[in-house]
Amino acid sequence: MADNDTNRPDTTQKMSPSATISIGTRQAELPVRSGTIGPDVVDIRKLAQDLGVYSFDPGYGETASCQSSITYIDGDEGVLLHRGYPIDQLAMNASFPEVAYLLLYGELPNAQEYCDFRENLKEHALLHEQIRNFFNGFRRDAHPMAILCGTVGALSAFYHDGIDISNPASRDLSARRLIAKVPTIAAWAYKYSQGEPFVYPNDDYSFSENFLAMMFSRPNTRYRVNPVLARAMDRIFILHADHEQNASTSTVRLVGSTGANPFACIAAGIAALWGPAHGGANEAVLAMLEQIGKRENIPAFIEQVKNRESGVRLMGFGHRVYKNFDPRAKILQQTYHEVVSELKLAHDPMFDLAIELERIAVEDPYFIQRKLYPNVDFYSGLILRALGIPTSMFTVLFAVARTVGWVSQWREMIEEPGQRIGRPRQLYTGAARRDFRPFSNRN
Ligand code: ACO
């Protein structure tokens, strides 16, 4: 690993006081655990044993479901760290495979490690030729997320018997295969929907150049990779690589905790990501801009948004976790301007509309008072549109990037000492015990 010891993170855990929980006259002393940074957690594992009760937290919003050293978020401060490194430093200076290596192995690679990792990903980017056959089974108008989810799941049929998740080398191989093959499947899902021939990975390109080439090369034209656009693509991948214990990552961990095939685990993560509440907001930004149509309609639209009765929201603004600013949005705002300038899109009505909408919203007291700022989705949708990527592919690209986070979190979970199957409890509100009655005794 490249970093010297002085740059290694301090992961020593601080000692913390315990918490006392009382129910009537019964009391339980529960340990409070501290991480390196961030809020402490009350370790409630003895709650049922000591007090005979469980905790209740639907949606797990207040529950730390695991211990992790991969990603740290402080929503109030707008902080996102991967293995301790701020997201803006990574997005502006590193490549996506470098960030993938960091997330997987905990340290930035040195030059040799990076080179080996890249070569290895290139080797694994090809798909088994039989996987081509799967595509023909999909309707030609199938959503690319359906194709991605189904085909990644199908990889488990190609890589099953040889997989031993208790073996670190086997886990590593699965992780690298997934990071390398998911982009190929994603690009082929697009090609299939377009009725165009599949484009094979090209080792001469960087990770993001190769992805764009697999998306846009055609047999009758030579695709020239624009470095500004490839860099924008790379940044979008970096910014979506991991976001700690979100719904899809928690899904991957839960499925993985059963010992399931890693390719099946990632297919489950893709299914979770597909939901509009998770991966679909950047699509909604473009739909909103199309609905607004032109500059003159912005004030009326903003009034509609501010009227709570209308139920209309300014898509791409606000975030559940980031309450001051989304650190990813700042980077993509800059990237967006680079792309607009490179492609000379300043006069495109959609881009003009987006810039004006943002300007009005960030100066409006309604948004300022509620701490509503543009989030990562406001810009990512616009950039992807400028790159020529159709909206149906937006969540697919998110999945390409997030595969890195999923496999890193999956590996960490499997490697945890005493790892056991995820099994939440419930508050039962159905009928109490009653006896079966035959039809003749039912009303
Ligand atoms: N437009 C207008 N008003 C908003 C918006 C918005 N986008 N977001 C929040 N508000 C208002 C709410 O109406 C509420 O107002 P009130 O205090 O008068 O009742 C106040 O701001 C607080 O809103 P909450 O719903 O409590 O904020 P929450 O944290 O629950 O919601 C969310 C976060 C869901 C992201 C929300 O901001 C939203 O719907 N944004 C638009 C959709 C979007 O861009 N989602 C992508 C998020 S980024 C990502 O997931 C990768």
Automatic annotation (TrEMBL):
Q: In which pathway does it act?
A: Carbohydrate metabolism; tricarboxylic acid cycle; isocitrate from oxaloacetate: step 1/2
Please provide, alphabetically and separated by semicolons, the GO molecular function terms listed in this UniProt record.
citrate synthase activity
Q: List the GO cellular component terms.
A: cytoplasm
Q: State the organism named in the record.
A: Neoasaia chiangmaiensis
Is Chaperone set as a keyword in this record? no
Which NCBIfam families does this chain map to?
Answer: cit_synth_I, PRK05614.1
The record's section on InterPro entries has: Citrate_synth-like_lrg_a-sub, Citrate_synth-like_sm_a-sub, Citrate_synthase, Citrate_synthase_AS, Citrate_synthase_bac-typ, Citrate_synthase_sf, Citrate_synthase_typ-I
Q: Family, per the entry?
A: Belongs to the citrate synthase family.
* BP term (GO), one: tricarboxylic acid cycle
Catalytic activity entry: oxaloacetate + acetyl-CoA + H2O = citrate + CoA + H(+)
Name the record gives this protein: Citrate synthase
Q: Does the keyword Transferase apply?
A: yes
Where does the record place a coiled coil?
none
Sorted keywords for this record are: Transferase, Tricarboxylic acid cycle
What Gene3D superfamilies is this protein classified in? Answer: 2.20.28.60, Citrate Synthase, domain 1 (1.10.580.10), Cytochrome P450-Terp, domain 2 (1.10.230.10)
